Amino acid sequence: MNRLKLILPMPEHKDQIMDYKREFIENGDSMDGTAGLNRFDTFEEWYGAVCDNSREETVREGLVPATTLLAVSVHDNRLIGMIDIRHRLNGYLYNVGGHIGYSVRKSERRKGYATEMLALGLKECVKLNIKRVLITCDKDNIASAKTILNNGGVPENEIQRGDHTIQRYWITLE
Q1: Around Cβ 81, how many Cβ atoms within 10 Å?
Q2: Distance (Å, rounded) from C-alpha 72 to C-alpha 90?
Q3: Residue 1 confidence class, pLDDT cut points 50, 70, 90
Q4: What gap in Å lies between CA 146 and CA 155, rounded to an integer?
Q5: 3-state secondary structure the chain
Q6: Domain containing 110: what range?
Q7: Does residue 58 carry a pLDDT above 90?
Q8: What whole-number percentage of the chain has pLDDT above 90?
Q9: Total domain count, the chain
Q10: The CATH number of the domain where 158 resides is what?
Q11: What are the Cα distances from residue 120, in Å, to 32, 91, 125?
Q12: 136-153 burial string, b = 16+ CB within 10 Å, else e?
């Protein structure tokens, strides 16, 4: 039984999204899979970018079309995590970012939510006709590597980027 569902962000989610951002900033965590939430001062600016970047016709310069989704509890609609599914790869995403980025708020980690969230995200990839999904993580992010492996990720290689080693995994979808 799913504990999470993925939904599109809407203006009525503003308070939850800004609270999510606050929790990440307070904990000094990286906001992966949030469509750059940390780079926007207001919800409205971020939401405008999410909407623009959801379609090929309006995607902002230097980016690829992406679907940003909220992972919310089916029990109480609490925002647990966020996942960003890029519809295609550019050079940077092929080497470093992958098709999918995701994060789970610190207060909800170590409960299996990331694995469930990624599984749901892979179902969205099928809808987007993405047959091979590239997912990456920092080598020191053991939890993320386990999440990817739990969803069928096959390690391809590691890339050195500055002082970070990026692990690259592929998942082939039916």
Answers
A1: 26
A2: 29
A3: confident
A4: 11
A5: CCCEEEECCCHHHHHHHHHHHHHHHHHCCCCCCCCCHHHCCCHHHHHHHHHHCCCCCCCCCCCCCEEEEEEEECCCCCEEEEEEEECCCCHHHHHHHECEEEEECHHHCCCCHHHHHHHHHHHHHHHCCCCEEEEEEECCCHHHHHHHHHCCCEEEEEEEECCEEEEEEEEECC
A6: 4-172
A7: yes
A8: 95
A9: 1
A10: 3.40.630.30
A11: 17, 26, 9
A12: bbeeebeebbebbeebeb
Structure token pair of residue 166: 């990026």
- Which residue type does 146 have? K
Dihedral sign (CA 150, 153, 154, 160): negative
C-alpha 130/C-alpha 56 separation (Å) is 15
Q: How many other C-beta atoms are found inside a 10 Å radius of the C-beta of residue 117? A: 27
For the record, the structure tokens of 52 come out as 């623009």
Residues 63-110: pLDDT tens digits? 999 999 999 999 999 999 999 999 999 999 999 999 999 999 999 999
- Cα–Cα distance for residue pair 94/1, rounded to 1 Å: 33
